[in-house]
């Protein structure tokens, strides 16, 4: 965390109270979203971002062993969807499962597919993502209709006997792998 904060030099870190304490002494101003003082702030809308504005940084493992920040613009995010076949476009009302760590680039697809298209994002607990049985139950109960999974983990969730069963009950829901 210290490395990334020193490297990125953020103006502020926005987090919950439970996480804010972890940032003490790291030289960044913290805004806690559950702080009652936030309600006293003006509700003026912020200006719309430009396509070339930085949206976020994602850190790679770095070929030299030192993590490297990759700058992602708002335009980069919208380009995720520009070349998709119309049948694969995220749709309003879809419920997307977030099964990956925010530090993994596939999580970007999970988050923005839901949030940019009028969908809902369900953050699936780690213990569920690590259990093929629980993950399949989550899928079959239709808690989430859109699911992106790394092939290595996804294959553990689809033994042949269940693939047939899931195939007959999935309907138009989508499954992809990175």
UniProtKB/TrEMBL annotation:
Signal sequence, start to end: none
Alphabetized GO MF terms: phosphopantetheine binding
Coiled-coil ranges per UniProt: none
GO cellular component: cytosol
Domain AMP-dependent synthetase/ligase span(s) in chain numbering: 30-136
Pfam families tied to this protein: AMP-binding
Single biological process term from Gene Ontology: secondary metabolite biosynthetic process
Protein name per the record: AMP-binding enzyme family protein
Species the sequence originates in: Mycobacterium kansasii
Record lineage: Bacteria, Bacillati, Actinomycetota, Actinomycetes, Mycobacteriales
């Amino acid at each position: 965390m210290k490395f990334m904060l020193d490297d990125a030099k953020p103006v502020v870190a926005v987090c919950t109270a439970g996480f804010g304490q972890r940032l003490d002494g790291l030289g960044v101003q913290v805004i806690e979203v559950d702080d009652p003082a936030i309600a006293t702030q003006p509700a003026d809308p912020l200006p719309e971002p430009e396509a070339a504005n930085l949206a976020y940084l994602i850190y790679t493992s770095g070929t030299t062993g030192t993590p490297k920040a990759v700058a992602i613009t708002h335009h980069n995010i919208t380009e995720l969807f520009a070349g998709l076949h119309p049948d694969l476009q995220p749709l309003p009302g879809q419920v997307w499962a977030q099964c990956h760590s925010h530090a993994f680039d596939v999580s970007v697809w999970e988050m923005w597919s839901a949030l940019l298209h009028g969908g809902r994002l369900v953050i699936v607990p780690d213990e569920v993502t690590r259990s093929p049985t629980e993950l399949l139950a989550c899928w079959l109960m239709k808690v989430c209709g859109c699911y992106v999974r790394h092939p290595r983990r996804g294959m553990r969730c689809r033994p042949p006997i269940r693939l047939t069963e899931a195939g007959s009950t999935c309907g138009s829901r989508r499954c992809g792998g990175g």
